[in-house]
Amino acid sequence: MSRQSISFTKPNDEWLKAQVESQEYSSKSELVNDLIRQARNQQAKIDWLAVKLEKAEKSGFTNDSKEQILAESKKRLNG
Fold it and tell me: If 8 and its partner were Cys, which of 1, 13, 28, 33 is the partner (CB 3.0–4.6 Å)?
């Protein structure tokens, strides 16, 4: 595992420390790695959805844009 030196703003550093102190994580490094892992998983889901939307647009099934489809999906989810 490679070592990195990063700086945090005061509020972010305090939040990281609080998470470690609450024993949610054993170290800031563990927490930062978990946050990165979550972000990567979220991006993979976004990428998957974008591919599906693009495929649907190209199929001629709808004339709506990706943005319109996403907005309608969110609207239906939030009912």
Answer: 13
DSSP state of 54: H
pTM to 2 decimal places:
0.65
Q: Looking at residue 35, what is its pLDDT?
A: 97
User: What residue numbers bound the domain in which 56 lies?
Assistant: 10-78
19 part of a folded domain: yes
Q: How far apart are CA 54 and CA 44, in angstroms?
A: 15
- Report d(CA 55, CA 12) in Å as an integer: 39
Number of structural domains (the chain) is 1
Residue with tokens 């946050």: 35
Amino acid found at 49 = L
Task: Express each pLDDT in 7-39 by its tens digit.
Answer: 999 999 999 999 999 999 999 999 999 999 999
